Amino acid sequence: MKKEKPNYFDLVYQVVKEIPVGRVTSYGAIAHYLGLKSGARMVGYAMNAAHTMPEVPAHRVVNRQGLLTGKHHFATPTAMQEALEKEGVKVENDQILNFEQVFWNPETELTL
Fold first, then answer.
1. Number of neighbouring beta carbons within 10 Å of residue 16
2. From 52, 61, 99, 105, which residue has the greatest number of CB atoms within 10 Å?
3. Residue 13 to residue 83: CA distance in whole angstroms
4. Main-chain phi, psi angles of 96, to 5 degrees
5. Average pLDDT for the chain
6. List of residues 6+ apart from 41 with CB closer than 8 A
7. pLDDT value at 110 more than 90
8. Quick one: angle between helices 8-16 and 27-34, nearest 10?
9. Closest CA to 30 of 85, 112, 95
10. Residue 52, pLDDT score
11. Residue 36 vs residue 68, higher pLDDT
């Protein structure tokens, strides 16, 4: 029996599940790591679909500048920020403070 190849969304979710508590990554970093031809946009689509999946910490995925661009897909407008702050990530005006210090790069920190 032929084993099914995981779809893009499943691959994205595998990476997102590896982001440590208190760290964030970007849509583009995940896309680059996975070699997704459609890039950050496809990762964004996957994150939009993950808002009902508690095992996928979608709140840890932000845009390349550290902005909470996906916040409108959460239950409330402040839920993404609240989840990040609960993990020790500081956010001000939808911008992650010290973004470079909390940025998690799957390219250098992950071996799936």
1. 23
2. 61
3. 18
4. -75, 125
5. 91
6. 27
7. no
8. 120
9. 112
10. 81
11. 68
